[in-house]
Write a structure and sequence with these properties.
9 strands; seven-stranded parallel beta sheet; alpha/beta; two-stranded antiparallel ribbon; 249 residues
């Protein structure tokens, strides 16, 4: 029985659309490297791989929300208590937005977000929750009908803006302020078509409005006109009327 011949060294190698010759020929095949379970796994933590993951989040978000009807994003604190007036206001706002013909989008968490989702669901509307991966698990509240979880805040922010015709902002903390000022900046710089931003709860928001007027605008850091980019109200019907009027519904 003869000894098997050694495979001849390739002078030319075709790897998909790539041709390698002479010293640039690589051992094995693309399939072999794909299916090989051994080797370094650090590549899953590299920036090129993160770019693919980010892309997949955009694809999933666009696919899930592309067929939504006109929607309003409602922001507010995850710490709002279910027995508080703010929670009840969130429920009423969610319900009223559905009755006005809108779907309701929130961050999908507890507190004010849950309240708005609850109101939307009780009114038999479309209740959307866009969750975010955090060190402490929140999960999507039980009143979300369409839910998407994101790893990256900036992808989630894009979904809030892209699929909403306006924002209603309930009292909230740093995350709520982040979303609010992101929206104001996009409208101010005309990165998006102007859409309504309603701050609900004048007692909570008045200090911020005063600071914007007396420090930011007075100090020349913004214009007087920028104070017209948002409305403040304590009335659910007025909040809905403002977003309805400015969105043309």
């Amino acid at each position: 029985m003869g000894v098997p011949e050694e495979p001849k060294k390739l002078e030319e190698q075709r790897l998909g659309p790539v041709i390698r010759r002479r010293d640039q020929v690589q051992p094995g095949t693309t399939d072999q490297r794909l299916l090989d379970t051994e080797g370094d796994s650090e590549w899953v933590h590299t920036d090129p791989w993160r770019v693919m993951r980010i892309q997949s989040e955009f694809v999933e978000g666009f696919g899930a929300l592309a067929e939504l009807p006109s929607a309003i994003s409602v922001f507010g604190s995850a710490r709002t208590k279910p027995d508080s007036p703010e929670y009840e206001a969130g429920v009423r706002i969610g319900r009223a937005l559905v009755e006005a013909g809108f779907a309701v989008i929130t961050g999908g968490g507890p507190g004010a977000m849950e309240a708005a989702n609850k109101g939307a669901r009780e009114a038999k509307g479309i209740s959307v929750g866009l969750g975010i991966e955090l060190p402490f698990e929140q999960g999507l509240n039980a009143h979300v009908d369409i839910g998407v979880n994101f790893r990256y805040f900036f992808v989630r922010k894009t979904m809030f803006v892209k699929y909403a015709q306006g924002f209603v902002v309930l009292p909230g903390g740093l995350g709520t302020l982040d979303e609010l000022f992101e929206a104001l900046t996009l409208v101010q710089t005309r990165k998006v078509t102007r859409f309504p931003i309603v701050l609900f709860g004048s007692a909570y928001w008045q200090g911020l409005v005063d600071w914007l007027r007396d420090s930011v605008v007075a100090g020349g850091k913004a214009s007087e006109h920028d104070l017209l980019l948002f409305h403040v109200t304590d009335d659910v019907d007025e909040a809905v009327a403002l977003v309805t009027k400015e969105t043309g519904k």
